[in-house]
Amino acid sequence: MTNKNLKFLYSALALLVLAASGVKAQNFELNGMNAADIKAAQADKGIFDFIKPGKPETPQAPKDWTIMVFMNAHNNLSDSQLLGMVGKWAEKDIKEMKEVGSTDRINIVVEHGAKGKGSRRLLLTGKGGLLSSGEKVYGEYPNADMGDYKRVVEFAKWAKTTFPARKTMLVLWNHGLGWIDPKMTQAPSGTGTATKGILFDDETKNYVRTAQLGEMMRQIGYVDILMQNACLQQMAEVLYEMKDYVGLFVGSEETMLAQGFDYTKLLTFINANPAFTNEQLSDWLMNWYKEFYAAGMNVGPVNMPLDKQGATLSTVRPAALGELPAYLNGLANAAIRNGETEAAKAAVGGVIRFTSLDPANDKKKLIAAYADLYDFARILGLNAKSDETKLAAEALMGFIKTRLVLRSVGLNADTENGYNYTTVGGIAISTTMKIKAVPAQLANLYETKYSELALSRDSQWNEFLDWTDEVWRK
To answer: CA–CA separation, 426 vs 252, rounded Å?
Structure first.
């Protein structure tokens, strides 16, 4: 492969920025002042919005839920464009949250890092009129490093203490690149795969590494729901790091639209029925995702159909992740022991893969390492010659369907590669890439070695990948 073809190491990991246009500032007069005068004097804030206590004036009684949103827009999510219209995705989502706002049942707390503006810590009080901006500011941090896992810890612990609740949800809002911890370069996250990871901060060149996710959650303590509003994060390797500190994982195996979740609808659901079960929330999320893609997206006067865009969403039970290594080992050992080389080749060549490291140029997904685990086991078992391997594949598939993944939805297809996303199982894993000769430069992408991940330590999947690499490239 030529150096020209290797530009994926520095090219963008495509994020499909499809969303509604921004809202223009309102022009109005107030006591002889124009809008610019009011803005300059900060008089556009509500009269109560200047109160910035370190904690509520009086201790709060616990509510049903505290929803903590760590929103890192120190990158192109602050101002990326579509059709010439600015997509202020963080502002859009905060506006959606304010449509519901904190109620007697839920608290909505946000750490909002905006491009070039540090971060602000907010309690969203709800949609307000002239005297209220719909938020109360609890802190302003001009030098905030939104890529430091310790900042997430500090925010979440503060939110739990300041706004007590019987249950908590933590939303990690940013770009995502699955388990890969890339070595940093000077390019920002919007311009190069090699510079993008979960909670990437373009300004500090920092981000949260996969192993740091586990330490982050250990320090935060248990949360009932962890939602990753980011691409490619619903992976076995990623979730396994955090499994001991979460009650339910929500995320996508594939890339997600910058549009993200519909927070108005989600918070309305939570507020209306705060005693919902994980099953009820999962059903609601899957139905919403299907309806969203079926309706297409309105961008100004234009409706953009989404029926050609592959998409996934799932909920995963963290408690079951502890059992995953045994099932992975069962399949790996059976395949190696029985010499299932042809079955392995069939699985590597045919498994449903997700967005490539170079989506613009790698249409055949030759360098797409992330694949659907259920589909991989299905193909391997279907082509296996031994009953032992077939049974191990069936056992892993059954575990995914009945124990590990609570709900899953796959939408549309990748016609270029013949992938039917409706058959995905809901959790991804790293597999041997389809490319026959992996360029040596690719190793320079990784800061963390795959063998250093917790799932690699607790299972033999890393050794299995070494075997499938050799089988595939002979």
So the answer is: 8
